[in-house]
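Handout, section B. The chain below has 742 residues.
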Amino acid sequence: MAQQSITSFFKKINHESEEKKSDDCEEVIKPKIKRKNPFDGDSPEKKRTSNVVPESKETNKESFKEHSPKKGSELKITSAGEGKKGADYNPSKKNYNPITDAFWSVNEKVPYLALARTFELIESESSRLKMIEILSNFFRSVIALSKTDLVASIYLCLNQLAPAYEGVELGVAETYLMKAIAQSTGRELSKIKNEVQKEGDLGIVAEKSRSNQKMMFQPAAHTIDGVFTKLRTIANLTGHSSMNKKIDMIQLMFVACRHSEARFLIRSLAGKLRIGLAEQSVLQALAQACAMTPPNLDNYEEHGLNQLINLNETAAKSKVDNVALIIKETYCRCPDYNKIIPVLIQEGIDGLEAKCKMVPGVPLKPMLALPTKGVHEIFERFEGQEFTCEWKYDGERAQIHINDEGKVYIYSRNSENNTSKYPDIISRIESVKKSSVESCILDCEAVAWDCENKKILPFQILSTRKRKDVSEADIKVQVCVFMFDLLYLNGASLIKEPFYERRRLLHEHFQEKDGEWKFATKIDSNDIEQVQQFLDEAVKGNCEGLMVKTLKTEATYEIAKRSKNWLKLKKDYLSNVGDSLDLVVIGGYQGKGKRTGTYGGFLLACYDNENEEFQSICKIGTGFSDEDLINHSSFLKNHIIKEPKHYFRYEASHEPDDWFEPIQVWEIKCADLSISPVYKAAVGIVDAEKGISLRFPRFIRIRDDKTIEDSTTAQQIADMYSNQDQIKNQDQTGKSNEEDFY
């Protein structure tokens, strides 16, 4: 019966597919459970002919260079993939050549196996720089051979199907994936579930199940474009029988998988790629690829495959860094690869600024503020500069867009589309903007509002509102929107204008309405006593504290940066620390006594964005109510993993009873920070061998508005440690984080 089912799948997939059938009919090799580089050891030397680009000697540590053909030399790239097997594809090799080391030909669709092999290598690698190099090499092959597949390749690397603000999600639960695997392999569902419990990774189980499956004949090979298109189709299926249709499509895709494709296809469907590849690394890899093999070139015979070939190591690195800065800045103001990549291909790096501009409807990454510990520090930082103080509202960041057609969009700090969450804000929009406004982007804070007493309510009240598809008639928690910045007006970007001018335009073109729209309460003063009094008023007004901003000098809106232009001073900053921390939960300790049956403590980590790893910082067991512990335990038990991620950094003596998928951020307070021989936060920054830990940490709340990459960074931990009164007079090591980009 299972055999008949499989045969019908083959008939369907071969009937529907227009792709070329694969000649590679080998069985999938069983994967290693522990991560091990599948390409360890030297591969056999490839035969060379006079019409392929020769490899060169290593020229620098960054592996930026390999020989490119001289002008006028022959380069027959149409036969580049002949005779090569996808199972041997190795973008980690030294002196990688994007044409001769690929196993597909020019203008041929990129095989999905090439991406799966790339993921295998990245998963087995702990060095962020090496991960970037591997992914960059793969991108270079896509650029040189199959440019049109670059967008899909990037989205699959990020495990996304569209820009974040579009909210496209697969919506396939792990249970349904196990069912699809069972039906397409003829295995019992119970056995698959048991294996998942043992392995902790459905992708590995899927790969093993697929490799053990006997094949009558090999279906057409997957391509990146084909997989991406089918995943989008699955995501867009709706209706009564949509889940059955999704399972059917998943089965058809699964039986066509070769080698490690099954592992990463199932992980993508589950929404957990699990290779430690964050968006910053993808952007950096793209930048490195574009610097070496510019995508806007058509004739690599004439220009060469490596534009860094004639530069020394310092100059090559400088060029890559410059390209990376342009790409990252472009992405921050226009976070849509569907718009960025076509410009890169047609016009190159130089075309991004002109063609990828801010437009209403596409969210920007918000500007962020540096923490301070007291009013005196504000005056030290802004000495000789004009600045303003605003109340810091305890609500949800709301970036409000109005386009030329009058359509309104509302985005969170993470670019999540919250438009359907706030129908009340949209219905009131006409009462705030004057007739002079044709289009705009407002930076605001949506705050829970007590209409009867006309006062601000705590954030916890706002968090009880429904998150999507809210009916205005059903709203119980009212909001008031506090406007504090104007980023775009009537077709013109204002981010390069000083804050003084942006605020003037905000007040000129918008108006307040009691209980619905207000300008941020502010004071422009260089009197320390007035500022202190203003802080006290903010606290009495149920605000978190103050936001302090430069007015005229160095006062532009720095997208996605945490710079000294904005400072934050919160009412509950502890005297020695200066800020609360946003930390990721990575492990749990079984409770004892009255906490039996729940977790009694948790292992928390900060995020090292340099190495893209989570570094342990403390064990926490205080600040929880009994209800909190029950809720946390119930949630986290659904995200247990068999072993720690390779990007977790921790001391073995603090190993928890259970490891968790890093998916939740908690706000934490503490008494102070201290050097620790066992915790790994900011290790190597303040002390060469020791990390930093928190003393007397306590739980405050879950930060649903933050992703794990938005958690407090290792560099910020180091800065907070060094900024303590008892440490200030000591010599500080480590770089400043005042220009923390993205």
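Note. The two ends are 53 Å apart (CA to CA). Compare this with the example in section A.
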